[in-house]
Write a structure and sequence with these properties.
- This protein has about 190 residues and is α+β, with helices and mostly antiparallel strands.
- It is built from three helices and twelve strands; from the N terminus they run ααββββββββββββα.
- Strands 2, 3, 4, 8, 11 and 12 form a six-stranded antiparallel beta sheet that branches.
- The chain starts with a helix and ends with a helix.
Length: about 190
């Protein structure tokens, strides 16, 4: 025998096939992972419901009047998005009660009566002009962070709470016009009081 054959002989006597996969262990790990993910989602859902319970003192949202008047500004539903509402000044404290936590497409209409928020697939609401406090450009609200000035934030009074609601248009140039018009109307209303 040659030296190479002597070295290769122990290798040839070793195992002839690969180790068989332990399917029971793999299935067990997969089932455990799926159960863990289901538990995490269930806990998140329960947290969302608990937040809604804690905010249960929020009054019903007003609906639009029968005759709101002529629209001063309109954000078309094909280009607008409602990103949610938070406690004013606390951009991470999302309000979920009364459907305010549901993100959706939006059609905004500003009239002499106030701001009409029409949301396909979610609850519509109306903010009377007397309850509007401020409009500004911002970069974020709970769950959504954009570039500086990419979000139209409207602050309004509802019951005992000040609420910030965030809206986004696909055309950022519209935001400045909304802020100017809203703040002018708010200032005129406050001056008349």
């Amino acid at each position: 025998m040659t030296p190479a054959t002597l070295l290769a002989a122990p290798l040839a006597d070793g195992k002839k096939s690969a180790e068989v996969t332990d399917w029971a262990a793999r299935v067990g790990w997969l089932v455990g992972l799926v159960l863990f993910i289901a538990l995490v989602y269930w806990l998140m859902r329960e947290g969302w419901k608990w937040r809604g319970t804690l905010q249960g003192d929020l009054p019903e949202l007003p609906s639009a009047p029968d005759e709101p008047g002529e629209a001063r500004l309109t954000l078309l539903s094909t280009s607008g998005r409602y990103h949610g509402s938070t406690t004013a000044g606390q951009w991470l404290d999302r309000i979920v009660a009364r459907g305010l936590g549901t993100r959706s497409r939006v059609e905004l209409s500003l009239t002499d009566a106030g701001l009409d928020v029409v949301r396909p697939g979610a609850a519509d609401f109306f903010i009377p002009l007397a309850q509007l406090r401020e409009a500004r450009l911002d970069k974020g609200i709970a769950g959504k962070v954009l570039t500086e000035g990419g979000l139209l934030v409207v602050t309004w009074q509802h019951g005992e709470r000040l609420i910030d609601s965030g809206f986004r248009s696909d055309h950022a140039a519209e935001h400045t016009e909304w802020v100017d018009t809203l703040n002018n109307m708010i200032n005129k209303t406050e001056g008349a009081r």
